[in-house]
Amino acid sequence: MPSTGIAGLTLGGGFGHLMRRFGLTCDNLLSADLVTADGQLRKVSATENEDLFWGIRGGGGNFGIVTSFEYRLHPVGPTVLGGLILHPLSAEQDVMRFYREFAPTAPDELTTQLAWVTMPGGDPVVGFLVCYSGPLEQGDAVIRALREFGSPLVDTVGPMPYTELQALGGPMAPPGRFNYWKSSFIQDLSDAAVNTIAGRFGSAPSPYSVVFVEQLGGAVSRVGRDETAFGERGARYSLFVASAWTEQAEADENVRWTRDLWGAMRPFESEAAYVNYLDADEQDRTRAVYGGRYERLAALKKKYDPTNFFRLNQNIKPAG
């Protein structure tokens, strides 16, 4: 989403179209200036206040207010090969089974998502969101299998500036629209998982709702589990279910739909989750987000914010 703020994105981890090639946003953070609860401005990096540097790379806004970030940059482009390939919803089981075979073969330069969306005319569809950031002359060969599978209704994949690809989600989330999210990591699209998802998107009460299975792995998985506060490095996918609607009276049925779909997938989900995808009613999942790193984060919280001053977040409480 182009409206996502770089600060919160970084502090929670940072998913994006280039993550399989370059890692999460927080993996590319070199340093930050952080105002802690005692009013001190601290420089944090691999050589200064290293404990805080570890904590802010995935620990969210629990440790202070960041006033500046320094990032490692990477040359991309000037264009990437990106866009959507969409199939009728009636083909969703075949699409999912194809995707689970294709995704593990993808090079790091290719990040894909399995996406359920509704077309402007009202037809629900399923397909692939594609970003290939390697040498453009090799891109057609890399994604050929995606394009040749089945009988797609839409294929918009082509060369475009990365910023144009990043902006594709903007029309899906205009200001003022209500929304509710649920998310977890999943390891595989087994037959049981495919059968569980199948048929549910067609019953979404709103045409603005979406489901994504985001591909992880690549550079994301090559950072050590304990090198950053974001530690769920072994998951293959992130499942993201989001309702969106326009009238307050529609809230209950849309929230229920999201909870039902996500709940049905619980047998295939890990306890961990991406902290930036937790909604306001999921405070009880914060410990599960961090798993074995939670106690280290709680000790860090006690050291730098013992009164829990920074608590309007997915909160990590001070130890003790």
Describe the structure.
It is a single chain. The longest helix has 14 residues, at 251-264. The protein is globular. The chain has helices at 6-12, 19-22, 50-56, 92-102, 136-148, 162-166, 191-197, 251-264, 286-290, 294-304; strands spanning 29-35, 41-45, 65-71, 80-88, 110-118, 124-132, 154-155, 158-160, 178-186, 210-215, 237-245. With 320 residues, the protein is of the alpha+beta class. It has 2 domains: 6-74 and 290-304, 2-Layer Sandwich (Uridine Diphospho-n-acetylenolpyruvylglucosamine Reductase, domain 3), CATH 3.30.465; 80-277, Vanillyl-alcohol Oxidase, Chain A, domain 3, CATH 3.40.462.20. Strand 1 and strand 2 form a beta hairpin. The chain is built from 10 helices and 11 strands. Strands 4, 5, 6, 7, 8, 9, 10 and 11 form an 8-stranded antiparallel β-sheet that branches.
Short structural description:
This protein is α+β, with helices and mostly antiparallel strands and about 325 residues long.
Q: Kindly identify the CATH topology of the largest domain.
A: Vanillyl-alcohol Oxidase, Chain A, domain 3
Q: Domains counted in the coordinates: how many?
A: 2
Helix/strand/pairing class, anyone? alpha+beta
CATH architecture designation of the largest domain: 3-Layer(aba) Sandwich
- What are the secondary-structure elements, in order, as H or E? HHEEHEEHEEHEEHEHEEHHH
Largest sheet features: 8 strands, antiparallel
Spans of at least 5 consecutive residues whose pLDDT stays below 50 are none
* End-to-end separation: 38 Å
| Basic shape | globular
